[in-house]
Specification:
Blueprint (H helix, E strand, L loop, with lengths): L7 H8 L11 H20 L6 E5 L5 H8 L5 E6 L2 H10 L4 E6 L12 E7 L8 H11 E10 L22 H9 L3 E9 L3 H8 L3 H14 L1 H7 L2 E9 L4
Parallel strand pairs: 1-2, 1-4, 2-3, 4-5
Antiparallel strand pairs: 5-7, 6-7
């Protein structure tokens, strides 16, 4: 693993990603409202397991950490990210119960085995060049692993890949993300598929997107397989190492 590194292309993309002026106007608000349903899923799947200490891997600029702190979901929060600008933003937030935050090399997590109750990878795996390497590392340092990804592998996915600033380089469906985790010696304890919140729908497109939000909700309720074959949803999973009883 020591010989594996994030490519310069991606490092350059994320280095100053969270600096003021490097994202479209409104991105800070977008991340704030986007963190709410992410944390809803974290709480829903992780509340029944010990969660005194949590590390967020790929913490960005701290919106999820802030929301977790405000809900007092963990006594100890830790954060790592490859983005220097993201870590600076996290430090500036002065998040309650945040014990440490730092940059890392993208694959080697600088903590001992089972250091944390839960490791969180929320909307990170779709960005990874070598997802299994980081998933193994995340499950090494924590007793349980929470993963959430956007479900972008559907019929409306373009034929050809084009890199953009957001940096999604992997596309998942409910089955493929589940199987990915299982191939990393993990047992999936629970998996849910959720729609984006109404606020997330409305923010970029305006009130006209409310209809789309309701259509997606109804389709997910009555025909989940058809829904995920047509539209982008999110899938969240809570896992533990196979060797555990």
């Amino acid at each position: 693993m020591k010989d594996t590194a994030v490519s310069k292309h991606l490092l350059d993309n994320y280095k100053d990603y969270y600096e003021d002026g490097n994202n479209p106007e409104g991105d800070a608000y977008w991340r704030k409202i986007g963190a709410i349903p992410k944390v809803d899923n974290i709480v829903a799947l992780c509340d029944r397991y010990p969660h005194k200490s949590i590390i967020e891997i790929g913490a960005g600029e701290g919106s999820v950490l802030q929301e977790l702190s405000e809900r007092e979901f963990a006594e100890e929060l830790y954060a790592i990210d490859i983005s220097e600008s993201g870590i600076r933003k996290i430090q500036a937030r002065q998040i309650k119960n945040l014990k440490e935050c730092s940059t890392y090399d993208g694959y080697t997590i600088p903590y001992p085995d089972d250091r944390f109750d839960i490791a969180i990878l929320t909307h990170v795996v779709e960005h990874l060049e070598n997802p299994r390497l980081l998933i193994y590392e995340a499950s090494r340092v924590a007793k349980h692993l929470f993963v959430e990804v956007p479900l972008e592998d559907h019929l409306r996915l373009p034929q050809n890949f084009v890199f953009d600033r957001v940096g999604h380089i992997n596309d998942y469906a409910p089955k493929s993300i589940r199987r990915l985790l299982q191939t990393c010696s993990l047992t999936v304890l629970e998996q849910v598929v959720t729609n984006h919140s109404k606020a997330v729908h409305v923010h970029p497109e305006g009130k006209s997107s409310v209809t789309n939000y309701h259509v997606k909700n109804l389709l997910l309720k009555f025909s989940p397989q058809l829904a995920t074959s047509l539209f982008t949803y999110n899938s969240a999973l809570i896992c533990k190492k196979v060797s555990e009883n």
